Structure formats: structure tokens, C-alpha cells
Amino acid sequence: MKIVIIGGVAAGAKAAAKSKRLVPDSKIDIYTQDSHVSYSACGMPYYIQGNFEDYHNLIIRTPERFEKDGIDVHLYHRVEKILPDLNKIVVRDLDKDIVFEVEYDKLVIATGAVPVRPNIKNIDLKNIFTLRRLEDGIAIREKLRKSKRAVILGGGYIGLELLEAFVANKVHTTLIERSQHIMSILDEEIGELVQDFVSTLYPERTKIITNDEVTEFIGEDEVNAVKTKNSKIIETDMVLVAAGVRPVVDIAKEAGIVIGKTGAIKVNSRMQTNIENIFACGDCIENVYAMTGAAVWIPLGSNANKEGRSAAMNLCGFPEDFEGILGSAVTKYFGLTISMTGYTEKYAKQNGYDPVTVMITKRDKAGYMPDAENVTLKLVASRRTHQLMGGQAIGCGDADKRINTLSAAILAGITAEELAGADITYAPPFSTSIDPLISAARILVEKLKK
Amino acid sequence: MKIVIIGGVAAGAKAAAKSKRLVPDSKIDIYTQDSHVSYSACGMPYYIQGNFEDYHNLIIRTPERFEKDGIDVHLYHRVEKILPDLNKIVVRDLDKDIVFEVEYDKLVIATGAVPVRPNIKNIDLKNIFTLRRLEDGIAIREKLRKSKRAVILGGGYIGLELLEAFVANKVHTTLIERSQHIMSILDEEIGELVQDFVSTLYPERTKIITNDEVTEFIGEDEVNAVKTKNSKIIETDMVLVAAGVRPVVDIAKEAGIVIGKTGAIKVNSRMQTNIENIFACGDCIENVYAMTGAAVWIPLGSNANKEGRSAAMNLCGFPEDFEGILGSAVTKYFGLTISMTGYTEKYAKQNGYDPVTVMITKRDKAGYMPDAENVTLKLVASRRTHQLMGGQAIGCGDADKRINTLSAAILAGITAEELAGADITYAPPFSTSIDPLISAARILVEKLKK
Predict the structure, then answer these.
(1) Is residue B13 one of the residues assigned to a domain?
(2) What are the chain B neighbours of A408 within 8 Å (beta carbons)?
(3) For residue range A211-220, what is the model confidence (pLDDT) as tens digits?
(4) I need a labelling partner for B32 at 20 to 30 A (CA). Which of A63, A104, A374, B238 fits?
């Protein structure tokens, strides 16, 4: 069996390794236009920050290791076309600039996502970065260490993680966000709390501008300022554009592979596209919410790994259905943990649900423990079924523990009433005798009675 | 409505406060032979250790606060008899040494549990302590600070928490455990790991003796050595007896209240005993495992609080069924977290189940993060239904997050296959891209196929 995989960061690398274990005598080839495969993209902000020194730590599996396992990795090879009727792909060797065809029995598309490059004047000036490839991370880290001032466009996960990295390196940083609050994926009142924390932690070198956007980069060869819609001019030594990502679907689309309404590749529960022997996984695919079956595009490393594994299982003849995702995510800004799972209130409302919500702030541990900290928890449940639909938790306390307990509850479809009866581990260094998650569930139960 | 509550630590205090909120014009009286009500017994080891200085921090609600809320607290009043036919209790005022009767409409028994005092020669010597009441905690802390050597009998939760307190205070401590390993509530291989950690962390002042027990305390007025079955003589300045606890059920039993096979008071899902207007809650009652309905006695602060609340709801006419417990528990020994939920393998086997298990050790965070630590996770599932039955997690990494995610999964009755599809939050400072819990579930799925 000839398995060809396009892309090799998380999903592609996982699909390759798992397929080889499942069908050891298969021939497996990974094609990527990049210079590296199988690395932790999610770890780059921490490399940039300086939590560790060697970027090789981010590499999970080297091309040499793949070769040793019998998987051929073709770096600097761009797949330009898929020919489904011929079971072939057209590949360009970027080094030698030659084009050739490769046959496959099964094809896996794992082309991932790329940062959106907004149409802003002078965006091609030097020292304007996006973060996707390992080289981007290396270049940002290098430039950061020579910079005094920086501007970040976008206050989502990447923007916030890079803000931490920049501020930790004593760089005066201005983050510009178009929405009313940073972390606009969260509900407004949670995003507001995050923003308050971020703005006040190192105020001398952190500036958050919201409801504004960059309209022009200023500079000759290198960027040295940005201009915003509200006519602010902000001088800077470097710019990071973190204005979102989009799935890479062009060659798939051109080959007649169905794209979902989210703009990502549509697959069934077995990671199969509309073409039987073509699978797709990772940041380029549309998945479904496990609790509703509704299509959604949430590019996350956790999903990519699971989808890559699922693609391998199914293409190798071990059928297994993927239940969907919850969109569980976590990040931090210095001591503040920010985490969520499932639907936010606004997402639920936008999608026609009638949610009931509760938001509480409690200590994460017994109040007399010296390291007790706050955690703010918001729960979202369906008024109709009483089932939990989502939650958000932020705080310097242990927030992600509560979100993960909730994520299992949502996956299982349990109700607010059932969650109120949860048996959460308690000891003073770990929780309060009635855990915040249970307190919140109880209030939700009362609200649902009305 | 006259509500009388016997005992006021966790369950009793909660039942009183909640009842008052539900039925503000009820008359509520708490009777206790102790000197304090409403304190965090679970917090005493941390007070003893010196994590905070003032024991008043442990007090959740003072008698004055109760009085202010319209609840009468009678300290140093021992309830000697319950007269169910007359709806009365017989109370002895220990200060004045007088006996009187009190009428009730609803009675709540929250007499808790007391440490077992084993029948060992000279156990009444001075400086031999057990830990239950606040005064015990204060006395142990005081003696500890004047001691150079200590002996602890029993390596369960209390024994281990006090060992940390003693060792942290630079006291040379010998812990003597009858079983093969400390933390014998856990499966052997997990208990072994705990013991390895405990024995090697501060070896110069920590000695663990297993498969042995104290047969005699030696001393005139004060204890100055213990003698063991294996004829060891260990000199000491103080002894802590943490040889387990037993439910306080004597007056209940005498009044014809049914005691369960675990030795604790039998209640229905509404905290009601066999006598309609007598409720019971907290460490003195038998509960059931939520996943099997099997009777079990697990005295824990988390359960006590929930049961106290449940008793209040039901006796005040807001019927609500208690789903049962999972036995979720957590403690720590310095940096090592030890947590569990549901059935251990040995408990499952002892109770006639056919469990399938898996045990793995993984990093709790991305390996390149400088603070990544190990977590060892054991899962127990039913071979018949594939449902999760329990789990144990220990490690210097984030163990209790995994156990609480699992606890929600067990509560909901989900299978190993479903758990393998869990969507757990991932970012390098919080998890690995495939969380250890998912890795373990996947191995379980494979084992269940065989």
C-alpha cells in the first residue's frame, strides 16, 4: 500500500507514524514545502520567550528518525495538484525546481492552516512577522532580543502568548485588537477580566488598544511604526501579525474535494473526504461539535493529533469513528490561566440555542491556604435539555482542572443537576470542600427551575 | 419547625445553615460535646505544619455567627440518648453536669467519626495524640515544635499529611504501617511508588517501617519509646495514632436506627434513616457508590458537606436525591500529588468485578517545558460494560486534573472508548498534545478488545 501524506507538522506526522505501525510494509511518503516536519507549533511562543534555549526541543521526530522507521520525508517539496482520477499528485522539488508525479493508493491531506496576512499597506516591510513555521519562531526570537518596542496585531491565543513572551523580555509592547476586548473568542465579561489582568500586570511596558486596527505600516526597508484607523502612530522595532488563521484548502478544492461551510475540508467521522481514498486531518479540516454534531472549524494541536491518528486507523482498515470535538482550549498569560470548552454563551445564541448561564468567582483552594487564588467560572447549559454546553474558566487559581472536569461532563451529555452531584477530589491544597464547579452547577440548577 | 442537629463540624454545620436559609422561621439547635463547631478538620495538618499561624482561620462559622443567623449552638453538650417515640433527645450539659430533654420535629444526626484507639499497652501515656478535634490540632502543633523525634502509627491520608508536617518541621519521624505499603487504600503498585517517594525525599529524618505494628508504648508519665511486634524499640518525644477512624453510631443504634453493613448509619437517597423524621449525614453515615449503588463508608469532608446540604433540602421539604459518591480523594506529600476516584483494582476484585486496568507514566506537560513532571495514572474499567470504574494518579505533575476529568466520566457512566475521544485542553504549559488520560484510555480500549 502506497500512502502519500501532504504536510507533516502534527496531523500529517501522526498519520504517517501511526500508519507505519498499523501496516508496517506500507510505503509512506510525506511531502512538505517546509524545512521541518513533526514539531510542536504550540511550543514556539515558549521558545521565543526563552523558557528553553534550543529549538530542537520542539522537534518531536526528525526526518532521519522517520527514514529509520521506513517513512520517506521530502522537505522543500510543494504539492501543486491532486489528480484523484489518476491517484497521483504533482510535486515540485523547490530546491531543484523540477516537477514530477507520485502515485498513491491512499492520500492524506494535512496541509494545515496559515496566518491571515491582512491587506494592509506596506505589509511586506522587514521585521513584520507571522508565526507558523519553525523558521518564523527562530526569526522572531532573534529579532525580539534586539528590540525595545514591538506591536502585535490581534489579541487571540497567539497574540496573547507572544505578548507574554515580549513583555517577559522587557520589550515595550502594544497589542492592537479590532474587537472590544482581547480574547474575543470568550464571552465579553470573561474577555474583559482577561484584559484587565493583562493591562495591569506590567503596565509600564504593556499597552492594549481595542476597537482599532492597523491601516498602514510605516518605514523604508524596515517597519518603524504602525498607523491605526483612529490615526494613532505607534513607533516600533518589530511587528507580529496574529490576525487569525485560515485553512489551506486550495489544492484540495481544485481537485474537487468538498469544502464545508466553515471554509475547511469536509470529512466524515472517519476523516474521509468525498473521494474514497483521500483522507484529510488537522488544521485544514472541518470537524463537528461532539454535543450537537454542528460543523465547526477549530484548529488546535490537540485535535490535529487525534485526527491524524484517526485518519491512519481508518485508511489502514481499522475503522473507528471520531466523535467530534468540544473546542477545549487553554492558554496562560503569566500566572493567569484562561481556558474554555464547548459553546460560549454568545456562540450558543448566535447558533439559535437558548442558553442559561452562571458566572461565579471563588477561591480555588481552602481560603486559609497561603497560595489560594481566585478562579472565575462561567457555565453554559441548554434551557431545554439542562445539558451542559460549555464553560469558561480564568484565574490565577487552578482553572483548567474545572474546565476539563466539565469537558468530560459535556462529552457524556450530563445535565446541570447531575454535575451538581459530581464527586470532585477535595483537600485544602487542591480545592474547597464544595468545589467552585459544583457551586456553579447548583446555581445553574436553581436558574433552570425558573 | 424545631430542627435539632447533633454534631456541628462539617455536615451538621452545613445542615443547620442551609435549613435556616430554606425555612427562615424554623428553630434550629446544634448540640455538640466539643468546644468548637464549623471548622475545617481537613485543614488541621496544614495548621500543624505551619502553613498559616492562626487556628481561627480554620473556623468557617463561629457560634456567634450562628446565633446571629438564628441558630443556637450548644457547646459542651453531649447528646446521650435519642427517644424517637417521643421526638426527644436527652442532653447532658457537661459544664454544669445536668441532664435535660429537648423536643424536635426533625432530628439530624451528624456525629461524625472518631480515630480508632487501638488496644495497645500504655496508650494513655502523655504525648500520644490522635487528630480529630481542633484542640487536638493545637496540642499536636505545640508539642511538635518542642520535639526532636516523633512516631506516627498508620500511613493513610492523615498519617501521611502529618508526616509532611513533622518532617517539614525538621522532626525525625518514624511512620509505622501494618500493611505492605503506606497508602494501602491504593493499589499495591501505586502505594509502592508513593512509598518510594516518601522514603527518599528527606531520608535523613524520615523512616518508613511496613509490615510491622506497635505493641507497646514505653514511658512513665510521658511516652518516650514505642516497641513493635518485630521487637524494634524506637525512641520518641511524641506519638500520633492515625490508625483509621470509625463512625460514631452508638446513640443512633441504641435508638433503633438501622446501621448498614459497613458499620455506619444507613440512610436512603434523601439522607433519611429508617425513622421518618430522623436524618443523618456526614462521616457517621453509609453512602453508596454512584456507579454501582453498592454501600460504602468513605468519610471525607467533601461528602460531608454535600450530605449536610442534602439532609437540609430533604428535611425542609425540598426533595432531592443524592446520587451517591465516587470516593474521589486527593492529598499531597510535599510536591507529590496522590489522588483517586472510584474503585481500585483490588477493591473491584474483592467485590466480584472483573476489571481491566492500565497503568502509564507520562509527562504532565510538553516535555520541553522546564517544569514538566511525571504523572503515573492507573485506570480501572469493567470488562463487561467497558465503563470506567475508577482511577488513581500520582506524581509531581498535575495528577488531580486527570482524576477529576475521570471522575466526571465515571459519574456519567462513559466507556473507555468514549474517554479515548475526550477533548482535553492542551497548551504546552498544561498538558501534552495527547493528554496522559487519553493515552491511558486508548491502551485500555486495546486491552478490552482482547
Answers:
(1) yes
(2) 405-406, 408-409, 412, 414, 419, 422
(3) 999 999 999 9
(4) B238
- Full domain range(s) for residue A343: 337-449
CB B249: neighbour CB atoms within 10 A?
A: 22
Cβ separation B431–A330 shorter than 8 A: yes
The Cα of B253 is separated from the nearest Cα of chain A by a number of Å equal to 29
Domain assignment of residue A43, yes or no: no
For B234-267, what is each residue's pLDDT tens digit? 999 999 999 999 999 999 999 999 999 999 999 9
> Could you tell me how many CB contacts below 8 A there are between chain A and chain B?
219
pLDDT for res A127:
98
3-class state of residue B125 by DSSP: coil
- Using DSSP's 3-state secondary structure scheme, residue B387 falls into strand
Are A261 and A350 members of one domain?
no
Average pLDDT estimate for B423-443: 97
How many angstroms separate the CA atoms of B293 and B306, rounded? Answer: 17
Taking contacts as CB-CB distances below 8 angstroms, the residues of chain B near A290 are 421, 423
Check residue A327 and report its DSSP letter.
-
Q: How far is A294 from chain B (nearest CA, A)?
A: 16
Q: Do B294 and B359 lie in a common domain?
A: no
Choose among A422, A426, A429: nearest Cβ to B332: A429
Contact A425 B339 (CB under 8 A): yes
Nearest alpha carbon to residue B63 among B36, B81, B85: B36
C-alpha cell at B344: 481500585
Query: Å from A438 to nearest chain B CA?
Result: 10
Which residue in A has a C-alpha nearest to residue B301's C-alpha? Answer: A433
Beta strand A27-31 pairing with A71-74? parallel
- Tell whether B320 is covered by a domain: no
pLDDT per residue as tens digits for the range B327-345 = 999 999 999 999 999 999 9
- Contact status of A403 with chain B (Cβ, < 8 Å): yes
Mean pLDDT of B202-211: 98
| Cβ contact, residue pair B407, A428, below 8 Å | no
Q: Find the mean pLDDT for residues A91-113.
A: 98
Q: Taking a C-beta distance cutoff of 8 angstroms, is the pair A182, A198 a contact?
A: yes
* Number of domains, chain B: 3
CA pair distance A48, A392, nearest whole angstrom: 27
Question: How close is the nearest chain A Cα to the Cα of B333, in Å?
Answer: 11
A122 dihedral zone (left: phi>0; alpha: psi -120 to 50; beta): left
Residues of chain A in contact with residue B416, where contact means CB-CB under 8 angstroms, are none
Which of B310, B425, B430, B432 to mutate to test binding with chain A, by most A CBs within 10 Å of its CB?
B425
CA gap B412, A85 in Å, rounded: 47
Predicted-assembly ipTM surpassing the 0.85 threshold:
yes
A304 Cβ neighbours under 8 A, 6+ residues apart: A9, A10, A11, A14, A110, A112, A281, A282, A283, B433
pLDDT of the residue at B268: 98
Residue A53 in domain: no
DSSP symbol at B257: P
**pLDDT of res. A220:** 96
Both A238 and A250 in a single domain?
no
Nearest Cβ partner for A42 among B411, B423, B427: B427
Closest chain A residue by Cα to residue B393: A425
Confidence of residue B362 (pLDDT cuts 50, 70, 90): very high
Say if B449 is an interface residue toward chain A (CB within 8 Å): no
* Chain B residues 108-137 within an 8 A CB cutoff of chain A: none
CA B410 to mean position of chain CA atoms: 20
Phi-psi region of A70 (alpha: psi -120 to 50; beta: other; left: phi over 0): left
Mean pLDDT across the stretch A194-200? 98
Give the best residue of B60, B270, B325, B368 to mutate against chain A (max A CB count within 10 A): B368
